[in-house]
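Revision sheet: structure tokens.
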Amino acid sequence: MDIIKLRELLEAELSSRELVSLDDEFYRELDSLVKALELGVESSNERGDNVEGRLYNAQLRIAGKIIREIIRIRLHKIVDLAIEGKPYDLTNEEKRIFRILSAFINRENIPAESVPAETGEIKEGAREEFKEKPTVREAYLIRIDLPKILDENMNEHGPFRAGDLVTLPRSIGEILRERNAADRITIKP
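Predicted:
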């Protein structure tokens, strides 16, 4: 396992709605990679090699960010699988998480009397504040070819080709407009 393989896995997870199939040893390999980089930092510092130490530190930071993002994405997908009740392509560690989430979702092994009344019940009218707010969508003319894009709710948009006229959430459209990748279009009847 190395940073290049981690980046490839991150790209694969981002481009697929399903979990990317992983070996059961994946999380142990992640731990080994982090430990190896930490040992590299320590040995470089002991030898007084500041350049090599800084390189190991940079690799450690990059690996940490990629690992956290991979885990975040996989956890979102595992929650979706638990809601659907379909466990597949899970590592052993993820199967344990899936079982816990499924039990929570299905209210298994959670005695009703152990939940205090003030937190266990949702008052009438309070349900409304938990509903998703409608996403404001606007029309945009795409200037350049773009791959799939994830919005803040993990919904995929695209891929798009230059010249496509599309509707997108305002949050994504504005980012594309700021980067000169799209122009907002006003459509009048």
